[in-house]
Amino acid sequence: MVFAVNFFWTLGRRNEKNLYVAIWFYISTLITVAVLHIVNSFALPLSATKSYSAFSGVQDALVQWWYGHNAVAFFLTTPILGIMYYFLPKAAERPVYSYRLSVVHFWALVFMYIWAGPHHLLNTALPEWAQSLGMVFSLMLWAPSWGGMLNGLLTLRGAWHKVREDPVLKFFVAGVTFYGMATFEGPLLSIKSVSALAHYTDWIIGHVHSGALGWNGFMAAGMFYFLVPRLFGTTLYSKKAADAHFWVGLTGIILYIVSMWVSGVNQGLMLRAVNADGSLTYPSWVETLIAIRPLYVVRFLGGTLYLLGFLLMAWNLIMTARQGKAVDGSVEVAVVVPPERDGAGLKDIVLGQPLWFGVFLLAAGVTFVLAPLPVAIGAVVAVGVLGKIWWEVSQEAKAGGRPTWFAIIERRSLSFSIFTLLAVLVGGIAELLPTIMVKQAVPESGAAQKPYTALELQGRDLYVREGCYVCHSQMVRPLGPEVQRFGEASRAEEFIYDHPFQWGSKRTGPDLHRVGGRYPNLWHYTHLMDPRSTSPGSNMPTYAWLEGRVLDVKLAPRKLELMQKLGVPYSNLDIDNAEGQQRAQAEAVATDLAAQGVTVEWNREIVAMIAYLQRLGRDRGVPFGPKPVETATTGGSP
Questions:
Q1: 594: confidence class by pLDDT, cuts 50, 70, 90
Q2: Which of 152, 436, 518, 592 is the 20 to 30 Å CA partner of 275?
Q3: What is the DSSP track for 372-409?
Q4: What SS3 string covers 154-211?
Q5: Residues 459-473: tens digit of each pLDDT
Q6: What distance in Å separates the CA atoms of residue 132 and residue 113, rounded to the nearest whole number?
C-alpha cells in the first residue's frame, strides 16, 4: 500500500508528460494485484489466524486459481517486463526495438492473461465452459508473450558483441530467453490432453521454475549488477565473479528444470500405464516415488548451484559498494509553469468550465439517484474521465494536433490506470460471476451432500493446517487409470461445503477424495504415526505429534455457526449440540482403536484427523469397511 501511494503520487507530480513503457507494466502490477487480493480475501474470520473462504467448492477453485495464476502473472511477470523495457535498453545503449510492438504487447497481455486461470483446473469438476475458456485464452497468450520476448531480444540489434563482455547483458539475454521458454511451455500445458499427463506431476514444477529461476532471478540479477555500481559511483568489483555467477546459475537452472521435466513425464506415464488386460501396470503409488527419487538428487544439486551463484553475487555487490561512495542522485529539471489566472474566484472557476463539466454534473446526479452506490461511483468516475479526455483531445485538435488513441491516455496516468483496470476486470467478471451468482454453480444430484460433522470439520481444519493439500489432491479426474486407481470420478456437487476447496495441485502422494472407508481406523492411525510401517518406501513425514495434541473442542459450535453464515445447512440444534456430537463420534473412533490394541484419548487431534479422512468420498456410495489386507498394506501412501 505504501509503495502504491508513493508510486501513483509520483506519477501525479511528474514533469515528463508521457509515461514510459516500463511504467505501464508497473501500473498494471499494482492495480491487478490489489484487485486479486481483495476478491480472493473475501472470508469470514474465526480468529486472528483462522478464516473460512466465502467461496466454496467449484466457486472457490475458480476464484483461487484466478487469483493464483494471475498473481504469478502480475507479480512475477509484468514487473519483470518493466525491468526488461527499462534496463535492457539502458545496458545495451539501444532504444527499444519497437514502440508499437510494446503497445500491442502490453494491452494484449493485461487483457488476455486474466482469463487463463482455469487452465489449472482442466479435466476436473470445473464446468466445461470455464475449462475451454481458460485453455483458449492460454493458447492466445503465445502471441503477446513472444511479441514481448522478441521486442526485448531485437533491442540488442547492433549490440550483440557487448554480450560477450558485459555480464549484465548476459543475465538479461538469458532471462528474456527463459521468458520465451516459459511462455511457450505454459500454453502447451494448457491443452487438455497435455494437461491430463502433466498436471499433478513434477513437469509443472519444472515449468514454474524455468520462469522463476530463469526469468525472474536472472533479470533481477542483471538489474542489481547494473544498478549497484552506478548507485555508488564506481565499477563492478569483479566481472569475473559476475561471469562465474552466470555460468554457475545457468547450470543450476538447467539441472533443476530438466530433472523435473524428466521426473514429471516419467511420473505421468507410469500412473497412466495399463497392461493388455486393462489393469494398472504400477498399482502401488510408491513405485513412482522410487523411480523419480534420483531426479530429486539432481534437482537438489541444481538448486544448490543456483543458490551459490546468488551468494557470489551478494559478495560481489557488497565489495562493489565498499569500494565506492553513495552518489547524490539529485538532478536539475526545467519545469514549465503555466500562467495563473489573476483574481480567479469560485464563480470564475465554475463558469469557466467547458460544456462537458455541466454534462458530467448532470449525469452524476441522475446516476446517484437511480443506481446502487457502487455502480453510481463507477459510472461517475467513468463519465468524468472520458469527458475530461474528450475535452482535452478537442482542444489539441483545435490547435492542429492529431494524437493517436494511445497517446491520448498514455499522457494521463489516471486515465491509463482506469483503462488498465477495465481491461483486467472484463476477464475476471466474465469468468467468476457465472459461478458466484448461480446457486451452488453445480448440477443437482440425486444423492444429497451432507455437511461435515463437528469432529470432521475439526479434522479438516487440521488437514489444512498441516499442509496435507500440498502433496495430496482431492480430485479424481475422469481418466481411466485414475478412476481405476482411486475410485469414481469426482463431481462438482461433492464440494459445495468445502471452504476452502482441497483439489490440490501436486500429487507427491495419491489422491484422497475416495479414501473414506477404504481402510480401518487402525490403518490411518498407524500410517499417521509412521507412514513407512504401512507403505514401505513412502516419503511422507510422520505426524506423531497429533496424538499428543489436545483438540480445542470448544471451537466446534463457533465453527458450525460460521459455516451456517456461509450457507452450509447447519440447524441451530446442530450448533447447540456440536460439542456433544463431536465427543460421541470421537469416542466411537477411540473405542474402535482400543478394540485393536491402541489406546488414545478421544479429544486428541489424531482422532479428528482420522474422522475427516474416513469421511472423504462417503456421500457417493463408497462402501464402509476396509479393503483386503494385502491391498491396504501395498496400495500406496495416502
A1: very high
A2: 518
A3: -HHHHHHHHHHHHHHHHHHHHHHHHHHTT----HHHHH
A4: HCCCCCCHHHHHCHHHHHHHHHHHHHHHHHHHHHHHCCHHHHHHHCECHHHHHHHHHH
A5: 999 999 999 999 999
A6: 15
Distance CA 422, CA 428 (A): 10
Biggest distance spanned by C-alpha atoms of the chain:
95
Q: Is 28 helix (H, G, I), strand (E, B) or coil?
A: helix
CA distances from 145 to 89, 118, 207, 500, 623 (A): 18, 19, 15, 32, 50
Cβ atoms of residues 306 and 217 within 8 Å: yes
Q: What's 454-634's CATH class?
A: mainly alpha
The CA–CA distances, whole Å, from 490 to 58, 265, 474, 499 equal: 11, 24, 8, 17
Q: Kindly state the percentage of the chain with pLDDT values over 70.
A: 82
CA separation for the pair 184, 178 (Å, rounded): 10
Nearest alpha-carbon partner for 475 in 61, 56, 52: 61
Report in angstroms the alpha-carbon separations of 517 from 457, 468, 487: 17, 19, 12
The per-residue DSSP string of 324-367 comes to S-----------PPPPPPTT--HHHHHHTS-HHHHHHHHHHHHH
Q: What is the pLDDT of residues 483-525, one digit of tens each?
A: 999 999 999 889 989 999 999 999 999 999 999 999 999 999 9
Q: What percent of the residues of the chain are helix, what percent strand, and what percent coil, each to the nearest 5?
A: 65, 0, 30
**For residue 456, what is its C-alpha cell?**
470432521
Domain boundaries, the chain: 2-237, 350-437, 454-634
Take residue 30 and report the three cell numbers written for it.
Answer: 499494482
Residue 73 CA to residue 83 CA, distance in Å, equals 15
- Residue 44 backbone phi and psi in degrees, to 5: -105, 125
N- to C-terminal Cα separation, the chain: 42
- Which conformational region is residue 565 in: left (phi greater than 0), alpha (psi within -120 to 50 degrees), or beta? alpha
Residues 2-237, CATH architecture:
Up-down Bundle (1.20)
If one counts every other C-beta atom within 10 angstroms of the C-beta of residue 40, the result is 19
Nearest to 87 by CA among 222, 178, 212: 222
| 219 in Cβ contact with 172 (< 8 Å) | yes
| Per-residue model confidence as pLDDT tens digits over 45-103 | 998 889 999 999 888 999 999 998 888 889 899 999 999 999 999 999 999 999 889 99
Given a contact cutoff of 8 angstroms between Cβ atoms, the answer to whether 305 and 248 are in contact is yes
500 prior amide bond cis, ω within 30? yes
Distance (Å) of CA 453 to CA 102, 448, 456, 543, 612: 55, 15, 5, 23, 9
The C-alpha cell at 436 is 458466484
- Alpha carbon distances (Å) from 200 to 72, 114, 208, 214, 511: 18, 22, 13, 22, 10
